[in-house]
Amino acid sequence: EAGVAQSPRYKIIEKRQSVAFWCNPISGHATLYWYQQILGQGPKLLIQFQNNGVVDDSQLPKDRFSAERLKGVDSTLKIQPAKLEDSAVYLCASSRRTGRSSYNEQFFGPGTRLTVL
Amino acid sequence: SQKIEQNSEALNIQEGKTATLTCNYTNYSPAYLQWYRQDPGRGPVFLLLIRENEKEKRKERLKVTFDTTLKQSLFHITASQPADSATYLCALDRGSGNTGKLIFGQGTTLQVKP
Lengths: 117, 114
Fold this sequence. Notes:
The complex is a heterodimer of chains A (117) and B (114). By secondary structure, chain A is mainly beta. Chain A contains no helices and eleven strands. Chain A is globular and about 40 Å long. In chain B, strands 2, 4, 5, 9, 10 and 11 form a six-stranded mixed β-sheet that branches. The A-B interface holds A 4, 31, 33, 40-45, 48, 55-56, 91, 93, 95, 98-111 and B 4, 32, 34, 41-46, 49, 89, 91, 97-107.
């Protein structure tokens, strides 16, 4: 099966500019995640969707970050306006579902490397 | 607050030896603990999951232990190969059970020398 697709792979912007990232999860995966990974650190969960509804966005800086998953498939993550500290790799992941009955591993995309100058 | 710590220094070992990586956590009682592998420029890849009621789990040359009393997991790679060189991340589900809300450690970089 095809993996998680992300675009673009790299993006360089000036601070205060806007940027958007796109993610296409594995077909049939109900749950989609966006992570931020700063150099030298582990991924940090920003937002989790189940189908097209938000399950958790407690760590999303909502004053500048937004995300949507229309129709429960593709998703976009936007930063507006960007700050220097937003420089990181933004990873998208998907899993079949979450729930108590069984565990479903997360499959990650290659990420988008954002540099804010 | 919940915290996960892994060896911050890189681990360098000789091919054929066993690599042991450590993951410690505080202020938390996770139902699941997972290990991922991450290569440069790529997203993490799931390796193993161990549940709180399991002491040990094996998959080919990989072994994971989970000590809920010590709040620690050990990840072993036996008969290590240069191809095992990568960063290894441990992750806990911070929700109640299987919620997918993972907290990752900072990762330990393993270098296996031929």
